[in-house]
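Discussion board: Methods & Data

I've been asked by a reviewer to show the raw model output for two of the constructs in my manuscript, not just the figures. I'm not sure how much to include, so I'm pasting the format here to get opinions. Each protein appears as its amino acid sequence followed by a line of discrete structure tokens. Is this the kind of thing reviewers expect to see in a supplement, or should I convert it first? Here is construct A:
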Amino acid sequence: MENCKPIGSPMDPKTKLTPSEEKSQENLPYQNLIGCLMYLSVATRPDISFAVSYLSQFNSCYNSQHWNAAKRVLRYLKGTMDFSLTYQKNGQPIIGYADADWGSCTIDRRSYSGHCFIFAGSAISWSAKKQSCVALSTAEAEHAAITEATKEALHLRNLAVDLHMDQQKIKIFSDNQAAQHIAKNLVVSSRSKHIDIKLHFI
């Protein structure tokens, strides 16, 4: 891949992969590549987190299509080798952003959650992964994403306290008003009564 042609995004938005019923007969180091990409996505490259999380679900059922999708991530990395996380002393507190892609997985109809926390001008914590259950609405999927972000926010606040930083509450921004309403008003309704108690942790 040293001489590969760079590309502008880690994954084609139209990509819809399915598990391969028969493992590829080719000797493809798919799992090894995903493991290497996973290390990058967790350590320093939040921009490939979703693509790597999506591709990792095919670690035991891949074929040449999945392999080509994984190589696309390498092509993206080839063109963005100068990307970096740069931090500045700007006095801004930690802030978080949470989002979800409702029912985006065509295999099991589960949604993907994502969150990112910014401090000193750059990302310090991020995640992109499939939710554990099927959400029945966009609001429910977004609410689950906010819950995961809240758990991480508590960890970051405790870390800030240990470092003697002046960090009070961490604000988490979401673009879904219905999810915000559920989080702020824990009332029983037909829209929210089935939601697991752990999601009301916010």
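Construct B, same format:
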Amino acid sequence: MAARSWLAGRGVRSAGDGWVSDGQPGVPLTANQVAHSWAAGVFAEDLDRAGQLTLAFGLLDLLDDYWVTCEIGSAHRGEDGPLPADVLWDGYRQRLEAERDAEAVTHSLWVDWFEDRATAATAFAEVLGDDVERVVSEPTAPRLRRARRVLEHSGPVPWTVKEPAYRTAARLPALHPALFRALLASHRDVHGDVAPAPALALLDRLDLPAGTPHLADLRRTFARS
């Protein structure tokens, strides 16, 4: 079932740059308002859990709104969860590899999966850790997009979980800028996690442009910690 058709069945349709509902046809709605009002209903559909999740990802593609990922997370953690892991993480990986903006997905990873110590290790493994060797040895544009996006938002992931993937990523110069931002976020994020000595050793392996902002300060911080 296509997400647009599913919304139409509930009296919601696109209108110009926004949305309208049959209930209030003269009132324009934003994608965020549509997500808040209707996204949860996906998981009440008469579909199996994989079908519901596929529909939810379609709604995410259509609305491009972070709240849809919140409803996915709620369904995963709810009394009828967990959702099918293969469909869940394949959905995240596909959108991390896509050319289109992935802010809703990366924000979801960062604040809902990586900041939660109960889910960080599994989430990081699924979106990068388990296949980082392949990303490095057989790089493609989609895989590199995914790796960069995950690395740049991986600050809260426990250091012991992400360090092996960081070390592997360091073998590919194309990932060095993203890996630098990963180390910076690991230090600066409120929930960031880093071990200064190995982080400094990793930082020294990166081939970065002279004058890279924050590089000297980060190196000094790691060196004196």
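Answer (T.O., handling editor elsewhere):
This is acceptable in a supplement if you add a one-line summary per construct. For B, something like: The CA atoms of residues 196 and 224 lie 9 Å apart.
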